[in-house]
């Protein structure tokens, strides 16, 4: 399973539905602050990276959020 599939898996767990790589936006999936907090938590568990909550809103697709994860991994 590649990183994008792993990220989609996290989103699908949070939203309880199939999620596309870059077509499904956080807000289109009825994402709110509680969903954002859950997403950040599960991303940290899956990738070992702690993202600030605002990243979910600034990068509202699985592919974009994965880019934030990769940036954190390259810094850390």
UniProtKB/TrEMBL annotation:
Residues 1-73 form the Carrier domain. InterPro entries: ACP-like_sf, PKS_PP-bd, PP-bd_ACP. It holds the Pfam family PP-binding. Keywords: Phosphopantetheine, Phosphoprotein. Coiled coil: none annotated. SMART domains: PKS_PP. It comes from the Bacteria. One of its GO terms (molecular function) is phosphopantetheine binding. This is Phosphopantetheine attachment site. It comes from Micromonospora phaseoli. The lineage of its organism: Bacteria, Bacillati, Actinomycetota, Actinomycetes, Micromonosporales.
């Amino acid at each position: 399973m590649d990183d994008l599939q792993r990220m989609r898996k996290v989103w699908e767990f949070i939203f309880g539905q199939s999620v596309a790589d870059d077509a499904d936006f956080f807000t289109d999936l009825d994402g709110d602050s509680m969903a954002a907090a859950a997403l950040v938590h599960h991303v940290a568990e899956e990738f070992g990276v702690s993202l600030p909550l605002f990243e979910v809103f600034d990068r509202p697709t699985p592919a974009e959020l994965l880019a934030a994860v990769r940036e954190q991994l390259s810094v850390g």
